[in-house]
Every structure is written in C-alpha cells, then in structure tokens.
Fold each of these.
Amino acid sequence: MGRLFFILVLLAVSLYGVKLLRAKLDEPSRKSRKLDRDTSTTASNNQKIVKCLHCGLHIPEKEAIKKGDKNFCSIEHASRHLS
Ligand SMILES: [Zn+2]
C-alpha cells in the first residue's frame, strides 16, 4: 500500500513538473510573439524613415527636408547637395 501511494505521489509530482516545464517553455515564445506584435504596431505607427541624400543619416520622413523626391536631414545639407 505504501508503495502504491509512493508511485501516485511520484506521478503527481512528475505531472506537476511537466506542467511547470511546459509553462516555462511557453513563456519565451509567448513573449517573443508579443514582441513581434509590438514591433509591428510601432512600425506601423511610426513615420516612414528616409535617408539624407547628403550624409546618409536616417530621419523620420516628417522631419526630413524635401527637395523634390530627395530627402535631407537639414536645410544645410539640402542646399549643399543642390548647389
Ligand atoms: Zn544630412
């Protein structure tokens, strides 16, 4: 009888262990999935990033100086490139 009880306890403990292990294994994947969702939402929320034609600096399109279809990080670079 004592042996049967021991086996039952062992079984319960191992099942509990597996459950914990699965929860632990699930956690990082769930986290990364959430991160993926976060980055995609921030990417869609953020402005488009454009490159300064003069120095190659990446700047939000909103802050870029536009000269036709060319983008610049500053008026100085825009005029320098065009002159
Ligand atoms: Zn620049």
Amino acid sequence: MFSETAIKELEETKTRYPDSKAALLPALYIAQKEFGWLGTEAYEVISTTLGIPKATVRGVGTFYSMFKHKPMGRNLIRICTNVSCMLLGAERVVDFLRRQYGFENGSTTPDNRFSLVIMECIGACAMGPAMLVNDDLYGNLTEKTIEEIFSQYR
Ligand code: FES
C-alpha cells in the first residue's frame, strides 16, 4: 500500500506539469521507490492520481527497462550483451556470473543480495563489457573487477 508520503509526493509531482501525462515517468519512479518494483497497485494508484488510463500507465511502465516488474534483490545488476560488449567479452562475463554466482537472466541470489538482468545497450559501448549495479556504471569488466565491485554492495 502506498504510504501517505508517497501519495503526497505523487500529487505534488502532478502539479509540477501542465499535462498530467508528463508526470508519468516521475510517478513511476516514486512508485518503484515505494515498493521496489511496479505491480498492479502501483499502476492503479498512479492511474487514479494522474487521471491517466491504467493501460497507458502500465504500457509506459513496462516499456522502459529501468522499471522492475517483479520483486528483485536489494541490488540490481544490469549487464549488456549487445554487439560492442559481446565483442569485448560480455559472454565470458555472463558465463563467469553463471559459474561463480549461479545467475541466470532474471534470477535473484538466495540471500536476496543481487538480481541479474541481461540487457541490450546501456550506453557504455566504448567501455564494454559494461554493467550497471543499481545506478552505478562499470566497464571493462573482468572476473577480478566484478568480484571487487560486488564486494561494495550488501
Ligand atoms: S553495446 Fe554494451 S553498452 Fe552499448
């Protein structure tokens, strides 16, 4: 259930834009911050608050890869396997993640510490293989740097 604080934040966000559709992305971020992911309740409350059809809210929420659609671990790893990263060793990195941590695409570690999502380009093609951990960008990944990076997240 949305907290009163989150509802206030949604309503205040709506007033900042001349058209409530423009408040949709910020509203989705508020919902994701509140729940950790976007589900039916989030879409319904945003739809009601902004006066936008629920199908539109869900359509926008499911279009963008920065929104989560199921409960995830405390830290979300998004790794790119598109062409540039693949040529620079992304498949080797994904194999390492599978062997070392048991990751499959969309999986979460048993301790709920990490979830992994394999993505297309994350805009860091020159520094592939690249990944995001939450909002932090890392490139030129190797097995050693991955372990160092993961050690920073609890
Ligand atoms: S191809 Fe991997 S970040 Fe662009």
